[in-house]
């Protein structure tokens, strides 16, 4: 038995040795070939080119003036140009930032000879920008004179998008859980306030009823009544906010709650000099939603738009649109509400969904409107996003998942 | 003759205010801060209307209402919930427990007076015609 094993081992060892020997001799032959003057040069070139062509990352070389002297296959695919189209043209033509980008890179290379993990964007033939992680270096000749530059371009667009999406999702989660905790707190506070508020209103009502017309302090008592009314409105708003129960999901056309919200608000918008532009697509796939809650969302957004335009708008126009979008994060119906108000400054854009955050004057807003919208949309499995250009206006987009992919 | 109304609320501020509101209208008011106390009062005295808060320690308003309905003499007596809980499911729960009406706090005093008057009158008419 032992002998057999030994034999096997020996065989294996010998086989191994044999193939190793073959590989070695092949390498030696290649080495010899490479070192034959003319033929060798061609072979080296072919060898290197094969490596360059097989690379999954884009490789580019330029001359000293920045004209492209070589691109590999991957680079061609990355920028979507054929090799012969781009060779001889300035590399800045494929940089999204154009010549400024080329200057920045040159400056960097002159200082450091090379640049590692340099992030930038290139522009495809169709204008699409791709995010690139770049390694760049100067190319020198035998006399060590700089003759050009070379760069290895790694397309990281997808990673970047994924990372951004992940971050968004995380923020969304944090926001949602904060909101739930707050909802419970607010419900408790509202509940506790209601009893003394009701007692106060009742007693005040009795006082006022039994008062003689000429009682000198009547006005002051009436004022207390007004304070009570305001507290009541705030409490009601708080309760509305905390009452974010599970929506009663039914298959509905998204245009229904939009139309209902417009029905309630149209008169007011017109009184405020606001033109309403409807772009509601007919025959959209149904969504699973609570028509009342969604109406509340759209009404909130419409009134926010109205307030924004009251403050700043010269041209007051509210564009309300609905459409189907098949793209990620999944097929859904998108409602867009766009105003021509003053926009939201960048530094507060991230705060607008935070409960109690408001820019409205005291007594006009409790800062719960957008939080409420966020909560409702969240409960529908949807997303709400705001884009704003200060001075030009704001667009709020509500995306809700389509209940079936009825439309492809 | 003045009708008897029992108010059950663990918040004494509310009890006091409601008493002040209803007394001048000629009602006789009984007040209780706990369900057990209310049940005890109802044994000694027959009430024409019961106003109940929902959230109370020991026995909540729904439970109190169910126990009231177990007594034959209170099978038809109007029971009104007056509470800060105002969600639809709370409302349903209140009606399931045998309540006739479910009102949310705060409620305007005039509205409450009208509702109480209507409920007591209807009760009076029904028992009169029966």
Textual characterization of the structure:
Chain A folds into 3 domains: 37-155, Beta-Lactamase (2-Layer Sandwich); 156-243, Helix Hairpins (Orthogonal Bundle), CATH 1.10.287; 247-408, Heat Shock Protein 90, CATH 3.30.565.10. Helices cover 52% and strands 21% of the residues of chain A. Chain A has helices at 2-35, 37-54, 73-79, 83-86, 98-112, 157-210, 218-242, 255-271, 291-312, 346-349, 369-379, and strands at 58-63, 68-71, 114-123, 129-140, 146-155, 250-252, 275-280, 287-289, 317-325, 332-338, 383-389, 393-401. Chain B has one domain (4-124): Response regulator (Rossmann fold, 3-Layer(aba) Sandwich), CATH 3.40.50. Helices cover 47% and strands 18% of the residues of chain B. Chain B is built from 5 helices and 5 strands; from the N terminus they run βαβαβαβαβα. Chain A binds chain B through residues 190-191, 194-203, 205-206, 232, 235, 239, 243, 245, and chain B through 9, 11, 13-14, 16-18, 20-21, 24, 55, 84-89, 105-110.
Question: What's the structural blueprint in terms of helices and strands?
Answer:
The complex is a heterodimer of chains A (408) and B (130).
Chain A: H1 2-35, H2 37-54, E1 58-63, E2 68-71, H3 73-79, H4 83-86, H5 98-112, E3 114-123, E4 129-140, E5 146-155, H6 157-210, H7 218-242, E6 250-252, H8 255-271, E7 275-280, E8 287-289, H9 291-312, E9 317-325, E10 332-338, H10 346-349, H11 369-379, E11 383-389, E12 393-401
Parallel strand pairs in A: 7-9
Antiparallel strand pairs in A: 1-2, 1-5, 3-4, 4-5, 6-8, 9-10, 10-12, 11-12
Chain B: E1 4-8, H1 12-22, E2 28-32, H2 35-44, E3 49-52, H3 61-70, E4 79-83, H4 88-96, E5 101-104, H5 109-129
Parallel strand pairs in B: 1-2, 1-3, 3-4, 4-5
């Amino acid at each position: 038995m032992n002998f057999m094993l030994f034999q096997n081992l020996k065989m294996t060892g010998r086989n191994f040795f044999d193939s190793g020997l073959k590989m070695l001799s092949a390498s030696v032959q290649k080495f010899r070939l490479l070192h034959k003057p003319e033929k060798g040069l061609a072979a080296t070139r072919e060898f290197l080119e094969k490596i360059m062509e097989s690379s999954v990352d884009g490789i580019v070389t330029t001359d000293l003036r920045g004209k492209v002297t070589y691109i590999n296959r991957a680079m061609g695919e990355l920028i979507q140009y054929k090799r012969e189209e781009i060779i001889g043209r300035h590399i800045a033509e494929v940089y999204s930032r154009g010549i400024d980008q080329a200057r920045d890179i040159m400056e960097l290379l002159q200082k450091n000879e090379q640049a590692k993990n340099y992030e930038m964007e290139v522009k495809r033939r169709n204008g699409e920008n791709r995010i690139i992680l770049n390694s760049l270096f100067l190319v020198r000749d035998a006399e060590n004179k700089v003759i050009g530059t070379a760069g290895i371009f790694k397309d990281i667009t997808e990673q970047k998008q994924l990372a951004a999406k992940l971050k968004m999702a995380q923020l969304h989660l944090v926001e949602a859980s904060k909101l739930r905790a707050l909802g419970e707190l607010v419900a408790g506070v509202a509940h506790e306030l209601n009893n003394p508020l009701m007692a106060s209103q009742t007693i005040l009502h009795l006082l006022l009823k039994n008062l003689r017309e000429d009682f000198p302090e009547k006005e002051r008592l009436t004022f207390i009544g007004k304070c009570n009314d305001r507290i009541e409105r705030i409490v009601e708003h708080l309760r509305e906010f905390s009452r974010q129960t599970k929506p009663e999901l039914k298959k509905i056309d998204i245009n229904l709650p939009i139309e209902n919200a417009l029905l309630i608000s149209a008169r007011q918008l017109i009184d405020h000099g606001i033109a309403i532009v409807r772009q509601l697509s007919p025959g959209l796939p149904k969504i699973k939603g609570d028509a009342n809650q969604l109406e509340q969302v759209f009404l909130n957004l419409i009134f926010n738009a109205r307030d924004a335009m009251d403050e700043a708008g010269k041209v007051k126009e509210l564009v309300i649109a609905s459409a189907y979008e098949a793209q990620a994060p999944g097929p859904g119906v998108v409602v867009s509400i766009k105003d021509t108000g003053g926009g939201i400054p960048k530094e507060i854009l991230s705060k607008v969904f935070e409960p109690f955050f408001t820019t409205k004057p005291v007594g006009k807003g409790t800062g719960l409107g957008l939080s409420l919208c966020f909560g409702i949309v969240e409960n529908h499995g949807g997303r709400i996003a705001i884009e704003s250009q200060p001075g030009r206006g704001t667009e709020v987009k509500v995306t809700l998942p389509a209940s079936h992919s009825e439309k492809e | 003759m003045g009708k008897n109304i029992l108010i059950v609320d663990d918040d004494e501020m509310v009890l006091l205010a409601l008493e002040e509101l209803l007394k001048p209208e000629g009602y006789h008011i009984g007040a209780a801060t706990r369900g057990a106390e209310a049940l005890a009062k109802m044994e000694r005295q027959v009430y024409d209307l019961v106003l109940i808060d929902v959230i109370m320690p020991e026995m909540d308003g729904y439970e109190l209402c169910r126990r009231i309905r177990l007594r034959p003499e209170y099978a038809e007596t109007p029971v009104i919930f007056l509470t800060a809980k105002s969600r639809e499911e709370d409302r349903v729960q209140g009606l399931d427990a045998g309540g006739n009406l479910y009102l949310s706090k705060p409620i305007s005093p005039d509205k409450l007076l009208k509702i109480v008057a209507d409920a007591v009158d209807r009760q009076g008419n029904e028992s009169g015609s029966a």
